[in-house]
Structures are given as C-alpha cells and as structure tokens.
Amino acid sequence: MPHLDDGIASEILYRLPTKEAYRLAAVCPQWRAVLSQPTFLRRHLSPRPLGLRPYALVVQPRRQVGYFTHLTLVAFDPRDPVPVDVPPQAKYRDHAPLPLCLLDTASDDSVFRILYSTGADDDDANPLATATLDVPADRVRPPEPPQMEDYVVFFERTAPMLGISIVASHGRLLLGCSRSRYYVCDPAANRWLALPPSTIAPASVANCGLHYDASTGLLAFTVVLLVRRTRERVLVETFRSATGRWDAVELAAHGAARCLGAASPGIHIGLCFYWLSLLRGRILRYDMIRGRASVLREPVEATGSKGRVSRSLGSVGGRLRLCTYDAGDTENVLGVWLVDGSPVVVRPSWQRVQEVVVREALHYFRFSMPRSPETSVDFPGASGKFIVVDQHRCLFRYNLQTGGKVMFASLLIGNNRRSRLLYSRYHVFPFYMST
C-alpha cells in the first residue's frame, strides 16, 4: 500500500495484537520494514495502556498455595460475559474426565505450542482439534466461542497448564506460583515470566506481595515474600526486575511475626504492603523503604455487634480500603473504611466512609461464632462507588449511594455437593484489558 506513509502504517500496525501484526509482514516490503524497525519493536512490545477499571475479576478457590484447583473469569457487566471454560478437576465432577480437552497434552511439543500461542488460528496445526473421535455426544466439549479474545484464551490455557495459583496482583500484573517457582503474568500482553528460584518455597505459607511500576513505561515490578523464621524474626525476600535477583534480609519483629500467614492477597499502597492476618483484628504491614514489619489494628466493631462476620482488604484510588460485616441481634452493619497510605504516616488511622444497615441478611451462630450468608469481597483497584458482596455463592455489585444490588456472576458449578463447595473460600484479582 504505497499511498500510506510509514507513520500511518506504523500506527495501524501498533494497534493490532502481536500475532496479527507480525503476520502482516508478508503484505508488502514497506510493512516488513516498519515491523523490523527497533523503534516500532520497542513501542509495540512495551505495556499497552489499560482501561480505567478492571474489565473482569479472576476468581480462584482458596486452597493450598502452589496447587492449581480451578479458576474463572467474571465480567463486571452481566451483558458482557467472559467466555472462559476451564474444566474442574475430576474429583469435582460427577462423571469421568472428558476424553478430549485442550488443556491435556501428550508431548512436550504440544505443551510448548499451547503455552506460547494465543490459540486464534492453531486448529490446522493441532491434530487433536481436527481429529474425529468416537465419543458420545453428551461427552464432547462444546466448541470455544469465536468471540473470545486472544489474551483470554492465553490465560485460560496457560494457568492450568503451569499449575499456577494466583497469590497477588497490582495494576496489570498478576503474581502466581506453582509447586516449584513463582511467575509474573501480564494477561493483556500474553506473557508469563518465570522468576529465578527463591529460598522461600512456593508451597510454604508466605505473605506474597507485588508492585508494578507503571511510570517507567516498561515491565518493571517488585515481588516481596515474608515468612516467619523464628518466633520473633521474619525472613523477607525481595525480587526486583531491574536487578533480576532475590535479596534476602532477616528482621526482628516480635508482634509482626505472630501475624504472619495471610488471610488475603497482598495490597500495595504507597511504599507499603498490607495483608489481612489470620489473627482477627490485625493487618500486617511491611514498609519497603524502612525495612520494617509492623501490625495495624482493624477499626472497632459496630455498636451492638456480636462479632465480625467477614472482612476483606482492597484499594481504591491509591488508598487502602477495608470492608467489614458486623452481625448484631436484629441487624447487620456493613462498614467501609479507608486509611491513609502515605509513606510519611507511621501510624495511620481509619476513616469510615460508609455504614449501611443490612436487615435482610439474617445471621446464625455456629460454635458461638456469628455467621452470615452475605460477605464482602474486595480487591486491588476496586471502584469507590460500589463493592462486591457474596450471597450464597452469587456475586452482587452493591451500590454504596443507592443501596441497590445487581447480580453479575454465580460461582455454583456442577450438581454434586463437592463441586458446589469448591468456591466456599476464594480470592479475587482484577483482570485488565488493553485499550
């Protein structure tokens, strides 16, 4: 196309996905020259701009770290579902495993092809996709929706293939771990980055945190792992993409050592990481600049509360947010709290921004502890206008201004009791798409 100058052609090719863009090098010598320019390669392979809010949520059952169980992607808008079809493990299904599954591989070559392919046009190269098998009609998986984006296909196939459990997120990046090592994933760019081995085993109960530096325009990130060494000492390992190595330091932190063991993924705010502790009423805080681990107390319970039913940690607009659910005799109280994440604040205080009295969600007592069918679910990069609540394994978007609830996803899979309990406990992470 000689009527297009190099600037216009470069802009057109930049807006295409990587696989489609480099396939167009066969169109003409001009486009081949544009695709070979170092300036185009540097721009096209750099992280793309993201949307203002997450496109979907990655929901993964909370199981032992490093052992993949299942995952699902749910869109915030019910009219725009994400067509992800990851089959549950055999022990969660009523029938025998399906004879044909794109996640099952028979050779190392097929593993490599699926891991590094978007799956858009691989039917001709995949004998399993075109073979005719003598399989009953009720046992054959339905074909994949053609509207599925390539990064969704990539994430759907590679996460189970590598056996990865997501443990933290920040911005566009996800931190996952398998049984042997840690990975950083950029779903919008179809990339997994395997980190060098760490002295802290992924199967150990470690507090994991991830920080993505979007100001550089490059894939710059920091990974932090905390684990208790002794009763009063904490081992901290930090991986920086700029250095490409793990740096370990041992800290003396008596109070923080007792709170290790994360009840939530790590949240990065300012220069600190935060985790919900397994000990009720406490939040673990790690300051990367000062190299100090400390404990932050949760806000007090609502007046007349019999106990705190649930709590979830997230972030909104660069500030730490805590959603609490306190059960009373006649009514329940949903509280939304914000804390200042400025690095100059050594002992930040909580500020209550919302308190909603919920009367329709009745609670009950089990072993003298209150329980409720409705719990709050928070995550990094959430919206300040609404929160996500779980009611009977269904996710609702709760508007903080109007009090209205809109259901946008169901976590009930299968018909047997084991499959329905698969998402009894889970973590959620934001899933961004490039603009």
Give me a quick take on this structure.
This protein is of the alpha+beta class and 435 residues long. It contains 9 helices and 25 strands.
Task: Write up what this structure looks like.
The structure is a single chain. This protein is of the alpha+beta class and about 425 residues long. Helices cover about 15% and strands about 35% of the residues. Helix 1 (about 5-15) packs across helix 3. The model is unreliable at about 95-145 (pLDDT under 50).
Salient structural properties:
435 residues; alpha+beta; 9 helices; single chain; four-stranded antiparallel beta sheet; globular; 25 strands
Q: How far is the first residue's CA from the last residue's CA?
A: 26 Å
Radius of gyration: 23 Å
Broad shape? globular
Low-pLDDT parts are 96-146
**What share of residues are in beta strands?**
35-45%
Number of helices: 9
Helical/strand content category = alpha+beta
For the largest beta-sheet, the strand count, sense and barrel status come to: 4 strands, antiparallel
How many beta strands in the DSSP annotation?
25
Kindly report the spatial arrangement of strands forming the biggest sheet. Answer: 3-4-5-6
Summarize model confidence as the mean pLDDT.
76
Helical residue percent band: 10-25%
How do the helices and strands line up, and which of them pair or pack?
Layout: H1 6-14, H2 18-23, H3 29-36, H4 38-45, E1 56-61, E2 72-75, H5 108-115, H6 127-130, H7 150-162, E3 165-170, E4 173-177, E5 182-186, E6 191-194, E7 207-213, E8 220-228, E9 233-240, E10 245-252, H8 254-258, E11 267-269, E12 272-276, E13 282-287, E14 292-297, E15 305-316, E16 319-328, E17 332-339, E18 350-358, E19 364-366, E20 369-371, E21 374-377, E22 386-391, E23 394-399, E24 405-410, H9 417-420, E25 426-431
Antiparallel strand pairs: 1-2, 1-25, 3-4, 4-5, 5-6, 7-8, 8-9, 9-10, 11-12, 12-13, 13-14, 15-16, 16-17, 17-18, 19-20, 21-22, 22-23, 23-24
Helix pairs in contact: 1-3
